[in-house]
Amino acid sequence: MREISITEIEGLRIGNAQNKEAGTGVTVLLFDREARIGVDISGGGPASRETPLASPLTADNPVNAIVLSGGSAFGLAAGDGVMRYLEERGIGYETGYAKVPLVCQSCIYDLGYLRADIRPDAAMGYAACVDAERNQPSSGSTGGGIGATVGKLYGMERAMKSGIGIYAMSVGELQMAAVVVVNALGDIYDPENGQKLAGLRTEDGKGFADSCQELYKISQRKDLFNNNTTIGTVVTNGKFSKAEMNKIASMARNAYARCICPVGTMADGDTIYGVSMGTVDADINMAGTLAAEVMAQAIKKAVQSAD
Fold first, then answer.
1. pTM for the complete prediction?
2. What is the pLDDT of residues 226-250, one digit of tens each?
3. What's the distance, CA 104 to chain centroid?
4. pLDDT value, residue 307
5. Which of 215, 301, 201 is CA-nearest to residue 266?
6. More confidently predicted of 269 and 93
7. Is 284:252 a contact under the CB 8 Å cutoff?
8. What pLDDT does 222 receive?
């Protein structure tokens, strides 16, 4: 098992676009190969587009792109720009009258970071696709993660900055990568040693408070700060069906439990997509375990690389 660059996964291109002054942005994953996806939604408030495409109960059509953006539900407009970019290049599902690009999307709530009146739009989604032509993705405060924060039990005043994290590994011929925007209600921990990396600060701002312990104190409170969501994608060159990718996505959620506390609350919209776009035969149990490992490392990178 070794770390690799996410750009080693053939057929995957990643691009970013952002508005630094507004503190919001878009990350797009474009699939140049046939991609079958699954999804795991564990949070109570997801903002999403076309997620039923990931269900084993729907048609087994390849997906062309996944978008991770800011802007809450307003940010879903960025997907229109991604569709326009793909349509211009003749990419999409053939309906007989037009090719319709199949684009899934999830959004974080970042309206409370800098500005609430500027959100990702179609132009920003298109710009992220153009940036994907360079295919030089990096972790940190960029793209869909530029407005990400963590530790928001008591609002933005005691929160800390986060971002987007990227990590990839290989086991033999099997490659697995994770891209995640960490915008959690809870605190973030190192999956290897349990050390707290970021999260809720004390009232004087000089140290960490414990979000779980603070949550226990306000069990009767109804106005829990709900402007959160950790959204991510695991991508593999393994050959798996939609049903299998749903299972792998659900196994990748173990990384959220290892690294984020509390997690999956009604104040989060936590979502993980799983993407298969290769021909490598692999055991689903091993692949799901590896997916959780790369996701945990990507979460760590998201907070360690943030501005």
1. 0.97
2. 678 899 999 999 999 999 999 999 9
3. 12
4. 87
5. 215
6. 93
7. no
8. 56
Query: CA–CA separation, 255 vs 257, rounded Å?
Result: 5
Cα distance between residue 225 and residue 113, in whole Å:
13
Calpha distance 110→95 (Å, rounded): 36
Average pLDDT, stretch 159-174?
A: 98
3-state SS track over the chain:
CEEECHHHCCCEEEEEEEECCCCEEEEEEEECCCCEEEEEECCCCCEEECHHHHCCCCCCCCCCEEEEECCHHHHHHHHHHHHHHHHHCCCCEECCCCEECCEEEEECCCCCCCCCCCCCCHHHHHHHHHHHCCCCCCCECCHHHCCCEECCCCCHHHCEECCEEEEEEEECCEEEEEEEECCCCCEEECCCCCCEEECCECCCCCCECCHHHHHHHCCCCCCCCCCCCCEEEEEEEECCCHHHHHHHHHHHCHHHHHHEECCCCCCCCCEEEEEEEEEECCCHHHHHHHHHHHHHHHHHHHHHCCC
> CB 187: neighbour CB atoms within 10 A?
26
**What is the residue-averaged pLDDT of the chain?**
95
Pair 272, 39: CB distance under 8 Å:
yes
Amino acid sitting at position 8? E
